[in-house]
Amino acid sequence: MASKASKEIMKEINEKLLLRGIYSNEGIDRASLAKLTGLSPATVTKVVGELIESGLVAETGVADSTGGRKPILLSIQPKKLCVLGLKIGVGYLDYSLTDLFGIALVSERRLLENQTPEEVVSTTETILKEWNGLMGESLLGIGIAVSGIVDSLKGVVKNSFLLNWQEVPIAKLISERSGKKTFVMNDVDSFALAQFWKGDVNNHKNCVFITLGVGIGGAVAIDGKLHLTGAGSGEFGHMTISQNGNKCTCGSRGCLEAQASFEVLARKVFSRTIHSELKELYSSVKATETSEIH
C-alpha cells in the first residue's frame, strides 16, 4: 500500500516538474526536457505521453535536426483546464475564472454585508453554479487570497483583523462544498507571486511588495523565492511606528496601518481640507458603510 502511494506521489511530482518545464520553455522537445528536469528519457516519454492523452500538452511542431529524427516540440494547452480565483476583501468578494496561462475568462465582484465564513462559502457555491456552463468538468481548483496571517499548508486563516476571522479553515470549507482542491494564502503574498508570474519583477531576485488600502500589507522575496514563515513576517502594517498612536484593528496602538491606511489618510484630509467637495465625498463614502475608498 505504501509502495503504491509512493508511486502516485512520484508520478505527481514528475508531472508537475514536466508541466513547469514545458510552460517555462514553450516549444521544448522531450530530450531537452530530460536534460532540464534530470528525469530519464524513458520517464519523460511515458509521462509526456500521458499528459498528451489528457489534453494538457500537445505536439505543436518540429525543430531542425542536428542529425537523426527531427525533435517534436511540446506546448501547454491553456484552455484544457481553468482555475477559479477568489479575493476576500472587506465588504466584497472578487471572483475571476482564468485559463492555465492566467487569461481571465470572466470576472465578477459580489458585495457582502455579513462577511462570515459561511457567507463566503455560500456565495462561492452560487458563483460555481452560475459559471458551471463555462467550466463544465474543467475546473482544476480554487485559489483564495485573504488579508491577515494565513497557514497555507493547513488552509487556515489564523488571524485576519480586518475580517475579524480567527482560526478559520476556509480552504477546507470551500473544498468540501465545491468538491475541488482549494488553496489559500495571504493576499499580498498572492499579489507578489502574480507579479513574478505576469508582472515586471521576474528579473529581480530580491523584492519587497507593499500594498496600501483598507489595511497595509507587505511581502518579501529573497533570491527569487517568496519568503513564507506562517508567522506574519510580511505583516508590515502591524509594525509599531508611533508609541501612543491610533488604535489598530489588531488591538495595538500606533501600527503603520492605524497611522497611514486609506481610511486614516482620508480622515486627515477631511479634517484639514477647506474644500467642500472633498468633505462631501468623504461623508458620502462613509454613508455607504464600506471601508474602502476607490
TrEMBL record:
Family according to the record: Belongs to the ROK (NagC/XylR) family.
Xref: Pfam families: HTH_24, ROK
Signal sequence, start to end: none
Residue stretches in coiled coil: none
Name of the protein described by the UniProt record: ROK family transcriptional regulator
Source domain of life: Bacteria
